[in-house]
Specification:
Elements: H1 7-11, H2 38-56, H3 60-67, H4 69-76, H5 80-108, H6 110-127, H7 133-162, H8 167-195, H9 200-205, H10 208-231, H11 251-280, H12 285-311, H13 317-336, H14 342-352, H15 355-365, H16 370-388, H17 390-402, H18 406-426
Length: 436
């Protein structure tokens, strides 16, 4: 499924083409040295703008729906079962379409696929409210989620290719933009819907404008790619003597995939169930919503700082332990005194959820080349999202059958322990190329 990308597929992503990391295999020496003049720096700025705008679009299609789910259910006559399915569809789509990203990038180039992903998000978001009926809404959602999935996988490759010596700082910028997009959609969808006339259809469709804006810088990159390819000897391609990477044979890849899946499980459980836990403990609905917003907002500054710190460390295990310890403390607090220490628990869980940008940073650091990063990113994210699917559903089932939050919170605590363990393994100073 995940075949090794040819060098020419990767060189089209950089300024004709960006050099690989210093530890790249010998085949990287065949890459052409990029122009370091003003034009190259200008194009790098366009790539940064595209990276930030793309990251801003990776969650609003999901969190805007969560904010208006009750209105969507009423407007479409959607059953509770289908509404529950909607909350599980994102992780499933991320897994399924994420596996396809390397093959698509091999055929068309990563930049083209990210651009197409932004188009898919724009079309899916604007079409689904007006498609007519539940089936049309699900189809539009699936299209948008497909665009998000391939961009999830390929944006770390963009970072590795264009900024090989700044993986930490650029991943921090990307992660911060992603967290900001998540928070903005959650906070602004309801008031923006009211300001636009009160229709949930308009409130969901308006987020397509952000995706349209994100298409523009990628079109510039693609035009530059076409010019560089046509003017380069042999169409810009370079031979490769690399040995294919057997990603499924890499212990580091598996550790990263399980770590990614367990942190995603914790994040989905937190976002989906934390307000209800607080409300059942006597916290008002309004305050519970603010507590969730605090949890999400913590990730905005930390998502920028944490990858920069991680990139300076040879072993990211200590960061995994710190974040996991915050998660354990937050869950124990939820179990013992949910209302009394609500603000502290919300803050601790927000810190713990920053395992996501840490995982992205490690994906960029655990391979020596963009070809390796695209395979590792697809594998870790797709397998990870598959792992995350049962978690929120299991929490709901335990809550329903036990009549309380004791067992669900015990499950959260139990899952945090292996998350720390595999995160420490994934944080070791290893490269997947060394494990083939």
């Amino acid at each position: 499924m995940m075949t090794l990308m040819a060098d020419e597929d990767l060189t089209t992503l950089g300024p004709a083409a960006e050099p690989l990391a210093p530890t790249a295999p010998p085949a990287a020496a065949a890459e052409r040295v990029p122009d370091q003049g003003p034009a190259a720096r200008w194009l790098s700025g366009i790539v940064i703008a595209g990276l930030v705008l793309a990251a801003l679009n990776l969650r609003p299609a999901i969190t805007s729906l969560g904010a208006l789910l009750e209105e969507v259910r009423a407007g479409l006559g959607m059953s509770g079962t289908v509404a529950g399915l909607l909350t599980s569809v994102p992780a499933l789509c991320f897994a399924v379409f994420g596996f396809a990203a390397p093959r698509l990038a091999r055929r068309w180039g990563p930049g083209a696929i990210v651009c197409a992903g932004m188009v898919a998000i724009a079309v899916g978001v604007v079409v689904r409210p007006y498609a007519g009926g539940t089936a049309g809404f699900l189809a539009g959602s699936a299209l948008a989620l497909a665009g998000i999935a391939v961009s999830n996988v390929l944006l770390p490759v963009v970072i590795k290719t264009w900024f090989p010596d700044r993986v930490g700082s650029m991943t921090g910028l990307y992660s911060m933009a992603l967290a900001l997009g998540t928070s903005l959609a959650a906070a602004l969808t309801v008031p923006m819907t009211a300001a636009l006339g009160g229709s949930w259809r308009t409130g969901l469709a308006v987020w397509a404008l952000l995706a349209v804006l994100a298409v523009l810088p990628w079109l510039v990159v693609l035009l530059r790619r076409s010019a560089a390819t046509s003017s380069a000897p042999g169409g810009g391609a370079s031979g490769s003597g690399e040995t294919p990477i057997r990603i499924t044979s890499s212990p580091t890849a598996w550790a990263l995939a399980v770590f990614f899946g367990l942190q995603a499980t914790a994040a989905y459980i937190t976002m989906g169930w934390m307000p209800q836990i607080f409300r059942d403990a006597g916290v008002s609905a309004g305050t519970a919503g603010v507590l969730l917003a605090v949890t999400m907002a913590v990730g905005v500054p930390l998502s920028f700082v944490l990858p920069r710190l991680a990139a300076r460390m040879r072993h990211q295990g200590p960061l995994v332990v710190v974040l996991g310890s915050c998660g354990l403390a937050g869950y124990i607090g939820l179990w013992s005194a949910p209302a009394a220490g609500a603000w502290v628990w919300a803050l601790l869980m927000g810190i713990s959820n920053c395992a996501f940008p840490l995982a992205l940073t490690m994906i960029g650091m655990r391979s020596t080349s963009p070809a390796g990063v695209v395979k590792l990113s697809a594998f870790a994210q797709s397998v990870g999202y598959l792992i995350s699917i049962p978690g929120p559903l299991l929490v709901g089932t335990l809550y329903q059958h036990s009549g309380g939050w004791g067992l669900p919170i015990a499950l959260m605590i139990g899952l945090m322990v292996p998350q720390i363990a595999v995160g420490v393994l994934a944080g070791r100073n290893r490269r997947i190329e060394d494990e083939r």
